[in-house]
Design a protein that fits this description.
This protein has 6 helices and 10 strands. With about 260 residues, the protein is α+β, with helices and mostly antiparallel strands. The protein has one domain: S-adenosylmethionine decarboxylase. The strands form 2 sheets. Strands 2-3-4-5-1-6-10-9 form an 8-stranded antiparallel beta sheet. It has a two-stranded antiparallel sheet with strand order 7-8. A hairpin with a 5-residue loop joins strand 7 (about 170) and strand 8. The longest helix is centred in the C-terminal third of the chain and has 20 residues, at about 235-255. It is globular. It starts with 18 loop residues before the first strand and ends with a helix.
Length: about 260
């Protein structure tokens, strides 16, 4: 159940010019000391997070935030990595009139959603990581915060950093400028408690500046999850690797 999501409807004059920008960085870690294990993880990443599968997630997000897709660009890279970009209509649920006029047409290319993956296989201590950045930028009545749970459902993640910024201003019917058109206390209010219970978190709230950040670090995973099932090594060595891994995860969370 979500908290504090009641919204007061504000009567605006003309087009809503507020820019709402939501950004995510998801980190996933694996212990892979050998070239064979790194190759296996690379194959997993290329399959699980291919450009088409990333684009499929972005399409679901667009549906959840009630936007409308205008165009797409997707790309896989060698030896690994992928990106996807969807250009969106700012008009909620694609309700743009066919001849909306210059004030509407001019805004159609301002909203977009992008995803880029960044596998890292160069850590000398045998730690392999994968990061995906998703950025949603809307200019209009679309609010990107409502898609958070769908994104968590898609990614296996150990650390998450979420940033939300609102910029610009629009005007009420009486001409008064307003700098945000929806109520938000914390990004946590838009994430299911069932998801939040798996994470330690840090909450940054700069209400007067319309800036919010939420950092999460997973707390309830079995140690075996970081090793390949067929990997065998002495327990002392396993614990040494896990110590390095937990230090790496904490460093990303605390930066």
């Amino acid at each position: 159940m979500f908290r504090n999501l009641q919204r007061e409807h504000v009567q605006l004059q003309g087009f809503n010019n507020l820019k709402k920008q939501l950004g995510f960085s998801f980190y996933d870690f694996v212990i892979a000391p050998t070239d064979e294990e790194k190759a296996a993880y690379r194959a997993y990443i290329n399959d699980r997070y291919s450009a088409e599968k990333i684009a499929e997630l972005l399409r679901k997000i667009v549906h959840v935030i009630e936007a409308n897709i205008l165009d797409e660009s997707i790309q896989d890279y060698e030896p690994y990595g992928a990106s996807a970009m969807l250009l969106l209509s700012d008009i909620k649920a694609g309700e743009c009139p066919k001849n909306g006029g210059a004030s509407v047409d001019m805004h159609l290319d301002k909203s977009h959603i992008t995803a880029h993956t960044y596998p890292d296989f160069d850590e000398p201590n045998g730690l392999v990581s994968f990061r995906v950045d998703i950025d949603i930028s809307t200019c209009g009545e679309i609010t990107p915060l409502k898609c958070l749970n769908q994104i968590f459902d898609f990614f296996d993640t150990d650390v998450v950093v979420i940033d939300y910024i609102v910029r610009g201003y629009t005007r009420r019917k009486d001409g008064k400028k307003i700098y945000i058109d929806h109520k938000i206390n914390s990004i946590r209010d838009y994430i299911s408690p069932e998801i939040m219970r798996h994470f330690e978190y840090k909450d940054l709230i700069l209400q007067n500046d319309n800036i919010w950040q939420l950092k999460l670090m997973r707390t309830d995973y079995p140690d075996d999850e970081f090793f390949y099932p067929e990997m065998t090594m002495p327990e002392v060595e396993r614990q040494a690797y896990l110590g390095l891994l937990y230090k790496e995860i904490r460093e990303i969370f605390d930066q």
